[in-house]
Design goal:
Blueprint lengths: L8 E5 L12 E5 L19
Antiparallel strand pairs: 1-2
Length: 49
């Protein structure tokens, strides 16, 4: 769960490396920080990791 009240997270690549250079800015972002009308985004493939 995240502050948005659900457990939808998006795996994405950021525009800058902040913590670990070997990850090349890839990481997870909670849906509360993605501005779209529906979570998950319609048509997005689900990942059950």
């Amino acid at each position: 769960m995240h502050p948005g009240g659900d457990n939808v997270w998006y795996h994405t690549q950021g525009d800058r490396v902040v913590v670990d250079p070997k990850n090349q800015a890839w990481g997870y972002m909670p849906a509360v920080h993605v501005h779209n009308p529906d979570d998950p985004i319609p048509g997005m493939v689900r990942c059950d990791v």
